[in-house]
Write a structure and sequence with these properties.
The complex is a heterodimer. Helices cover about 60% and strands about 10% of the residues of chain A. Chain A is α+β, with helices and mostly antiparallel strands. In chain A, α1 crosses α10, α2 packs parallel to α10 and α10 packs antiparallel against α17. The relative contact order of chain A is 0.11. The mean pLDDT of chain A is about 85. Chain B folds into two domains: about 220 residues, P-loop containing nucleotide triphosphate hydrolases (Rossmann fold, 3-Layer(aba) Sandwich); about 60 residues, Alpha-Beta Plaits. Classes of the chains: A alpha+beta, B alpha/beta. The complex binds adenosine-5'-diphosphate (ADP) and magnesium ion.
């Protein structure tokens, strides 16, 4: 009863600061934008064209060497594309015959690049075929079956405004990956960041306003104990942010489901994660609100804590995540030393003092950043096919644990709120 | 006898080096209007805040409605209008009372009827759904009165209730306080406006630098000992010289005469004397001093403590 009174009070206070309309406006905009995105299945020929274009960009050596699709077809034709057996021929075109004769490295790079992009083709065999033009090297690829499991894992290209603005060859991913990307990067990552920032700004004045000289007398002369008062205020702010996140994220989830047919309820976990992350920051904000009675100071301190947690999380993650195998291969390929098997490296350059500092800070501070990583893993598990996850090497981040991250964060919330309550309960107003 | 509505004994409070209260004892009976007077900084607000549990860490005893001060449950039966208050401005008058009413444990049904009624009483009915941000100072003070009364409290603390209110509004607040007294509510009033207090309080205490320097019923305190005003029928004159012979101190006072009694004298022989002279007595009152005079006098006494022992 009294709790709901505080909830309603927080609701009024939030509506009063017009910032809320910004959040709603932005998420509505994002919903509309996503609602207008259409995804198009890209035919194999077009994908290969894109591959050649990218090859030119990455390995073209000033566009003296280019690649081109000579021919492409599906061997088991009436079958669905994602179950297809494919045969296609690609040509590497050199400026002259001499260079074509010594062009083994370039041919190898094209083969590597093709295998990277078409990782989902099973049993991909390649052989050199003769060509009439002596300044060209022709490679014929043949595959048997795929590692895809439905239309959804076939590469799609998004187009904004119902396809009026196609995004081009750089943006071809499976439909499932797109949903994963939007949910993880766009909403859970960038969107969550923005939501939390706005929430911090909106909620930071709650406690200082309540404790303001001349206002505090009303509230502390009511028949409620002060710790309960502060807890209600805290949970009130939290509930409000939760509802906000639920509306925004739920809306995006719904729109995305309508557009793609992929309804992954796990995405809604983001709502909880974002609220929980905010709960840690709001505890910081509440403590400084009680101590200083200044909204500006609470915002500054909260953002400072946030920045510290973020940097520690980032450094820790970078130190402990080995370079991905595909990134290592890419490095080898670009340096022209393909197949020399240097293998993935674990951040060669990080000095030991950085390691020790990052490790110890990570051990004692709330692991908010780990929560983000864990959410990414969770979403990838829910949305991506196993082949895709293998390809993206998602098993690398396994060192993080939900229990430890949530446990330490909860402990911090407890300590910060405990301090705030103690100060509030013993202070003269 | 009823237990006192509120009571303090040797109440002392320090804020760091400042001694806000230095041993204050007072007691207010149910149904009484008690006025605590004193200059700014005398400690009046501190005393209320201690009783309401807003200020902590004090010494001595303080009880409110039979409970030790600071117990939160009893606060549901208490109304409080703080001085220099600032309402959360994102509320409207009505929504603020809804919020506070919920915190005070007023049921939904009661809130539904009482909030519009009390806002009507204080004259805010037409503005109850606009944000407090747009209220004038007087309107905010009226809302302050409304929130202190909405839950029908037994004890009402009013800290400088007429501060910043225009004369008409003051009169209304006074009327309201007297109405509350008629409903047998206990009212504890802090004020530095002595004229107002004099008009409504049953009892007053004068606080100075954290000490109670005078306390008593208004009527008793303002009675000027041994001073009467005498008026006769038009055209008649008091034989001053004769009375002076009887050892009375007489001085003309406008169209009347002021008579000072010495310690062993009473007024009755004067009345007898006037009758015996065949004069017609039209006016006889015991002369009073205003609370303000008393207050100033008390302060003067305190500043020069050698003149007379401090009254306890
Ligand atoms: N929260 C506080 N912190 C420090 N000093 C205070 C505080 N509240 C009141 N005081 C001091 O205590 C004394 C009494 O103040 P107060 O009770 O407000 O007096 P009054 O209400 O009679 O004007 C003043 O000297 C004032 O400065
Ligand atoms: Mg005061």
């Amino acid at each position: 009863m009294k709790f709901f009174a505080f909830l309603k009070d927080s609701f009024r206070e939030t509506l009063d600061s017009k910032v809320l309309y910004v959040t709603f406006g932005l998420s509505l905009l994002l919903m509309l934008l996503l609602g207008s995105v259409s995804f198009r299945m890209v035919p194999i020929k077009e994908q290969l064209d894109g591959l050649c274009w990218l090859y030119g960009l990455a390995f073209g050596q000033g566009s003296s060497t280019t690649a081109e699709v000579v021919d492409a077809r599906q061997l088991n034709a009436p079958e669905d594309a994602w179950k297809g057996d494919y045969q296609f021929t690609l040509a590497v075109r050199f400026p002259d015959e001499d260079r074509a004769r010594s062009g083994a490295v370039q041919a190898g790079q094209l083969e590597f690049f093709t295998r990277e992009m078409f990782w989902w083709l099973k049993d991909l065999k390649v052989r050199k075929v003769d060509s009439a033009n002596k300044s060209e090297v022709h490679l014929e690829f043949t595959s048997r079956g795929t590692r895809l499991n439905s239309d959804r894992s076939w590469p799609h290209e998004p187009g904004l405004f119902f396809g009026a603005l196609p995004l081009g060859p750089l943006f071809r991913q499976s439909l499932a990956y797109w949903v994963y990307w939007i949910e993880n990067r766009l909403v859970n990552g960038a969107g969550g960041w923005l939501v939390v920032l706005l929430a911090v700004v909106v909620t930071a004045p709650f406690v200082p306003n309540m404790l303001r000289k001349g206002t505090v007398d009303f509230i502390v002369s009511k028949p409620i104990r002060r710790p309960a008062l502060l807890a209600f205020k805290y949970i009130g702010g939290l509930t409000f942010v939760f509802l906000n996140a639920l509306i925004a994220i739920g809306g995006i989830w719904f729109v995305l489901g309508l557009r793609t047919g992929i309804w992954a309820p796990g995405f809604l976990v983001s709502v909880l994660i974002i609220t929980f992350f905010f709960a840690v920051l709001y505890a910081v904000s509440t403590l400084f609100g009680v101590l200083s009675r200044s909204a500006i100071l609470s915002i500054l301190m909260t953002c400072a804590v946030w920045a510290i947690l973020w940097v520690v999380g980032l450094v820790y993650k970078n130190i402990h995540t080995p370079e991905s195998a595909s990134a290592a291969r890419m490095r080898e390929a670009q340096s022209g030393r393909l197949g020399q098997a240097e293998g993935p490296q674990t951040n060669p350059g990080s000095p030991s003092w950085l390691r020790i500092t990052a490790d110890s800070l990570h051990a004692v501070l709330p692991r908010t950043d780990d929560l983000g990583t864990l959410t990414t893993l969770f979403l990838s598990n829910e949305l991506l096919s196993e082949g895709e996850r293998d390809h993206l090497e998602f098993k690398r981040d396994i060192a993080f644990s939900w229990t430890a991250s949530i446990g330490i964060c909860l402990a911090y919330i407890g300590v910060l709120l405990g301090l705030a309550c103690w100060r509030f309960a013993t202070k003269d107003y | 006898m009823n237990a006192p509505a509120l009571e303090t004994r040797d109440l002392a409070k320090r804020y760091g080096k400042i001694e806000a209260l230095r041993g204050v004892s007072l007691s207010v009976e149910p149904g009484e209007i008690y006025g605590l007077l004193g200059q700014n900084g005398a400690g009046k607000t501190t005393l209320i805040k201690i009783l309401l549990g807003i200020t902590r860490n004090w010494k001595g005893e303080a009880r409110l409605l039979g409970q030790p001060a600071g117990k939160s449950a009893v606060l549901a039966r208490v109304g409080y209008l703080p001085e220099d208050h600032r309402f959360p401005e994102y509320h409207t008058g009505a929504s603020l009372l809804q919020f506070y009413g919920q915190l005070l444990g007023v049921s939904r049904d009661l809130r539904r009827t009482r909030i519009p009624a009390i806002l009507d009483t204080v004259g805010l009915a037409d503005r109850m759904h606009t944000k407090i941000r747009g209220y004038s100072k007087g309107m905010k003070q009226r809302l302050g009165v409304a929130q202190a009364l909405m839950h029908d409290p037994e004890v009402i603390f009013l800290d400088e209730p007429t501060d910043g209110v225009d004369p008409l509004g003051r009169k209304e607040i006074r009327t309201m306080i007297l109405q509350l007294k008629a409903q047998n509510r206990t009212i504890f009033l802090n004020s530095h406006l002595l004229g107002e207090v004099e008009l409504i309080c049953d009892r007053v205490g004068i606080l100075q630098k954290g000490r109670m320097v005078r306390e008593g019923e208004v009527a008793t305190l303002t009675r000027q000992k041994g001073s009467f005003l005498v008026g006769l029928a038009p055209g008649q004159t008091l034989p001053v010289a004769e009375l002076q012979k009887l050892d009375y101190v007489v001085a003309p006072y406008g169209e009347r005469w002021e008579i000072h009694l010495r310690d062993d004298q009473t007024i009755d022989p004067v009345v007898d004397f006037i009758r015996s002279q065949g004069l017609n007595l039209r006016h006889l009152v015991e002369k009073r001093q205003s609370l303000e005079d008393l207050f100033l006098e008390t302060l003067k006494e305190r500043e020069a403590p050698t003149q007379r022992p401090v009254p306890r």
